[in-house]
Amino acid sequence: MLVLAFDTATPAVTAALHDGRRVLAESTTIDARRHGELLVPTIQTVLAEAGVPLREVTAIVAGSGPGPYTGLRVGLMTAQGLATTLGVPAYGICTLDAVAYGSGLSEQFLAATDARRKEVFWARYTDHRTRAEGPFVDRPADVPVSGLPVVGAGAQLYPDLLGGGRDLPLYPYAGALAALAAERLAAGVPLDPPRPIYLRRPDAVVPGAPKRVTA
């Protein structure tokens, strides 16, 4: 098993390679505006550090969001393109699941990431492997924290509202994403196709017909 995983649903452009036992290499750059520019070089860096040619990868995994439209599409389209080129399966895993898995928590908690527009994407977990509900998008004040720990960048951005006392990991680092995918694949757990999780419409809209000018 050689799982190449990456995520572009948050400001973290992150990629990792996992051999079914451990993460062989991982690279992350925090830059919310350069997903398209940074992802392929990040993948190349990871493969080079692991000493593994791309042709030996057996599965592609991408974070499927939720996340901002443009960044999210970069990762998912790259996953589909690589899978087609290599003739290997491509899968999608909820980005919040990667944040949760990276926390290692065995108690109930929330994972929250920045959704912009003064909102957060969030989900509730019974432990770091098990999502109980979500994902949702809400204003921080409307998230039912109920005293639970909160992991992810959402807790850092809104500490007064989501201050569960634990704000790490901030992002869905690809090492956690790859390890989660490898664990599920080894256990025979079906994985979803690499399709985006959209919780609201994109900011960009098709322009309407021009207004008629009258004299």
Automatic annotation (TrEMBL):
<protein>
    <submittedName>
        <fullName>tRNA (Adenosine(37)-N6)-threonylcarbamoyltransferase complex dimerization subunit type 1 TsaB</fullName>
    </submittedName>
</protein>
<feature type="domain" description="Gcp-like">
    <location>
        <begin position="31"/>
        <end position="143"/>
    </location>
</feature>
<dbReference type="GO" id="GO:0005829">
    <property type="term" value="C:cytosol"/>
</dbReference>
<dbReference type="InterPro" id="IPR022496">
    <property type="entry name" value="T6A_TsaB"/>
</dbReference>
<dbReference type="InterPro" id="IPR043129">
    <property type="entry name" value="ATPase_NBD"/>
</dbReference>
<dbReference type="InterPro" id="IPR000905">
    <property type="entry name" value="Gcp-like_dom"/>
</dbReference>
<dbReference type="Pfam" id="PF00814">
    <property type="entry name" value="TsaD"/>
</dbReference>
<dbReference type="GO" id="GO:0002949">
    <property type="term" value="P:tRNA threonylcarbamoyladenosine modification"/>
</dbReference>
<keyword id="KW-0808">Transferase</keyword>
<dbReference type="GO" id="GO:0016740">
    <property type="term" value="F:transferase activity"/>
</dbReference>
